[in-house]
Write a structure and sequence with these properties.
Elements lengths: L13 H5 L7 E2 H4 L20 E3 L14 E3 L10 H15 L3 E9 L10 E7 L6 E8 H15 L11 H6 L4 H7 L3 E6 L23 E4 L18 E5 L12 H11 L3 E5 L5 H10 L4 E5 L2 E2 L9 E4 L2 E4 L15 E5 L13 H8 L4 E5 L5 H15 L5 H13 L4 E3 L2 E3 L4 E3 L2 H4 L4 E2 L3 H4 L2 E5 L3
Parallel strand pairs: 4-7, 7-8, 9-10, 9-11, 11-15, 15-16
Antiparallel strand pairs: 1-6, 2-3, 4-5, 5-6, 12-13, 13-14, 16-21, 17-18, 17-20, 18-19
């Protein structure tokens, strides 16, 4: 259960909060006879759709009961058919025992009262059976405004930790009965721009966070995401990072973090400060093809030119436009953890930031943060995550279990130690000086997200 800290609304009007109701979903089979035309293929909503969605059927589009039609035999605009996606989902289910689903949330052009205002449409693709389609009476502008307000609330540690329902009501509640009926345990989110920077894990029905019932992940592109399952629990890790910089704040927790990741709870090699460079990373991987890579350093995603955004490799700044030069696709890295500030998102034009671009550059999965997270908060999450990664069948479930442990208050800095759900680690004097620190607020745990292949 969530903490008993009171409730804060995602600040929107009363009308916005109550007009997003939905009715029974439609399926492709129910709509194949509709006379319809395809939505505008130039819309960003269609850039990586799971299903070819038709939005101008004969029913009234300003009603939540309006139906949508889909052709489940077609490929998306990047070449992945629904059948191919379902085949991969079924293989993951068979290999891990986890039942996943793909949730595609897009905004489609509308008519009637919502004319010229994109309307939210949800498409649920389970491992077997028809895709389920839901049309929600809320516009892109309303959703974007509420996402911004929620994010501003979550990132302010002075605010309580329970959030009211608008986004949950629009994005999850219409699907809830079907998710339960299908026995879903993981939701892979292939969503429109503006929704990728949403901390989905904190969506709440007023009693529980979404993460308390499902593991979650983001997929920047289904067609470009390698959905095959690989058990990574026996792979060694290459851990690199820096704790001192000539022109940036120090990161005092990094040496402990690298030791925990590569020596105490996992096996691998660690390289700190002077040994942390792009050339060294490429040379090491050419000799030992590590498929787990952990980077603990500063990162900054800025609007503007790709070269303006960077991750620090010691005193070197690796620009966004240089990421593929690391050769992380030869062989493909199974998981890249970016333990750096604000590495998961950029602006709407490149919303998934370095973590998303790492996936585009050939990494199967990347874990990054949506906003600036304190050094000690990151240390707590990372230490527990690697412990969970040893035990859980898929990467996203390991992150979920860590987030649940943080919600329960099991991960904290106390009496000179970092306490995780499974182990205690001594802190340096510099970190001890921070005093006791409780890490249960969503600011600490909801920022981190797995992008790409969550299995």
């Amino acid at each position: 259960m969530v903490n008993d800290a009171g409730a804060i609304a995602d600040t929107t009007s009363t009308t916005t909060e109550t007009n997003g109701t939905s009715t029974e979903p439609s399926t492709a089979a129910q709509n194949t006879s509709d006379e319809s035309t395809s939505s505008d293929t130039n819309s960003p909503s269609n850039s990586n759709a799971t299903i070819a969605v038709n939005t101008s059927d004969n029913s009234s589009t300003n009603s939540s009961s309006s139906s949508a039609s889909a052709n489940t035999t077609q490929s998306d605009s990047e070449g992945m058919s629904v059948e191919a996606a379902q085949d991969q989902l079924k293989k993951v289910q068979d290999a891990t025992g986890i039942t996943p689903v793909i949730l595609h949330a897009i905004f489609t052009p509308t008519e009637g009262e919502l004319e010229n205002k994109d309307q939210l449409q949800l498409i649920l693709t389970p491992p077997e059976g028809e895709a389920l389609i839901y049309r929600i009476d809320v516009t892109r502008a309303e959703v974007y405004r509420t996402v911004t307000n929620l994010t501003n609330t979550v990132t302010n540690r002075r605010f309580p930790t329970v959030y009211k329902r608008p986004l949950y009501q629009w994005l999850i509640e219409p699907l809830q009965a079907d998710l339960e009926l299908l026995g879903i345990e993981h939701i892979a989110l292939s969503v429109d721009q503006g929704l990728r920077s949403l901390p989905w894990s904190v969506l709440s029905d007023g009693n529980e966070f979404l993460i308390e019932n499902y593991s979650l992940s983001l997929m920047p592109s289904l067609a470009l995401t390698n959905l095959e399952y690989t058990d990574i629990r026996d792979l060694d890790v290459l851990a690199m990072g820096a704790n001192t910089f000539s022109d940036a704040d120090p990161l005092p927790a990094v040496p402990i973090e690298l030791d925990i990741v590569s020596n105490i709870v996992w096996e691998g090699k660690a390289y700190l400060n002077e040994e942390f460079s792009t050339d060294n990373l490429k040379m090491i991987r050419s000799e030992v093809p590590y498929r787990l890579v952990h980077l603990a350093t500063h990162g900054e995603f800025k609007q503007g030119l790709p070269s303006d955004s960077f991750i620090r490799f010691g005193e070197q700044k690796l620009g966004l436009n240089e990421l593929r030069e690391l050769g992380l696709h030869k062989p493909p890295v199974e998981l890249m953890v970016l333990s750096a500030c604000r590495t998961a998102i950029g602006d709407y034009e490149a919303e998934l930031g370095f973590a998303g671009l790492a996936v585009m550059a050939g990494v199967k999965a990347a874990m990054g943060s949506l906003w600036y997270v304190s050094d000690e908060g990151t240390l707590g999450l990372i230490a527990d995550f690697y412990q969970q990664l040893r035990e859980q069948p898929i990467k996203s479930e390991a992150l979920r279990q860590t987030q649940l442990a943080m919600i329960r208050g099991e991960i904290e800095l106390k009496d000179g130690e970092l306490l995780t759900s499974k182990q205690a680690f001594p802190l340096t004097e510099e970190l001890e000086d921070l005093g006791d620190r409780q890490l249960s607020h969503p600011y600490y745990w909801s920022s981190f997200v797995i992008i790409g292949n969550p299995w």
